Automatic annotation (TrEMBL), chains A, B:
Keyword DNA-binding: yes
UniProt key word Transcription regulation: yes
Swiss-Prot/TrEMBL keywords: DNA-binding, Transcription, Transcription regulation
Name recorded for this polypeptide: TetR family transcriptional regulator
Source taxonomy: Bacteria, Bacillati, Actinomycetota, Actinomycetes, Kitasatosporales
Organism: Streptomyces sp. 900116325
Pfam families for this protein: TetR_C_27, TetR_N
Gene3D superfamilies with a match to the protein in the record: Tetracycline Repressor, domain 2
Location of the HTH tetR-type domain: 6-66
Cross-referenced InterPro entries: DNA-bd_HTH_TetR-type_CS (IPR023772), Homeodomain-like_sf (IPR009057), HTH-type_TetR-like_transc_reg (IPR050109), HTH_TetR (IPR001647), Tet_transcr_reg_TetR-rel_C_sf (IPR036271), TetR_C_27 (IPR041478)
DNA-binding region of this protein: 29-48
Amino acid sequence: MPSADPLTPERILEATEDVLRRYGPAKATVVDVARALGVSHGSVYRHFRTKSELREAVTARWLTRTEVALTEIINTSAESAPAKLQHWLAALFEAKRHKAGDDPELFATYIVLIGESTVVEAHIRELVGQLREIVEEGVRSGQFAVDDPAVAAQAVFDATARFHDPAYAAEWQNPSIGAEFIAVSELLLRGLRA
Amino acid sequence: MPSADPLTPERILEATEDVLRRYGPAKATVVDVARALGVSHGSVYRHFRTKSELREAVTARWLTRTEVALTEIINTSAESAPAKLQHWLAALFEAKRHKAGDDPELFATYIVLIGESTVVEAHIRELVGQLREIVEEGVRSGQFAVDDPAVAAQAVFDATARFHDPAYAAEWQNPSIGAEFIAVSELLLRGLRA
């Protein structure tokens, strides 16, 4: 729907997500996005120089939402490092599971976008970096005994792939998945403890 | 090539694997298998009643080869349970990595067959059952402290998915994968230890 609001990058990204959901990633064009906003496609290109730059930006925005929510666990919580780690892993699983379950079409769209994008590597680096902060905090407080926090963080991320990698999305509705998640995360926590 | 040897199930399965590799799972037929063996398709159907029964059998045979190799680690080794577990996980990773790397076409064929088959569930049950035996042995020897060996075995299997699930086959040639495998398996071993 055309609007008199100024054309911000955020408004373009919102419209792009909507157009991608409606037409699918194979068919959605910049002209569709411009039409949805009631502007010329030239106005969209002033903010995003190419179609692929626009798609990268919308994928990055989608991934960043999860990162921001997880950062809050690291920064605001008064929990111990082990509790924070448990909490962070559960929040990551929940976030991914919700994205997959609440709007399966949009999720499928983003899986296609992620496949053609390099932003997912930055996303994984960010998540492993957050895990490393928690591990380092636990080492400082004497609750974790770990030789190399970067290696341990990567190992925790790899070992929980079943609970955050979209390749497993089909299994996230299994009745046993919650118990399996708890078993893996508790085993990893025991492995980190001093 | 026609042969005068008696038509055993094993010979049919070998010929089927060969036909699947050559024609691909979408095109391979029972007639192709019979022709490769120099027999009528009726002779093949005497051993495997349907095309899908034949495909299930060839998939099961492929998966069973890995299971048998791993059983030997459990049965013949004089290692402690922790060493055995490390050894078993490394052997599973090696077996899968070899299957994927040595003959990528056959591997891709089996991924298709596995997708249409139920035998993979039995394969996973067998592997988790073997892990459970090792965990139980470690509990008996006092080296592992675990509430429920079945739950722990499933957790170890799930946490090492990156190193045995064919969904990750493309990453098994990464230079860092060996170090990542060691980091995950050592973390899990620490988590199991008494």
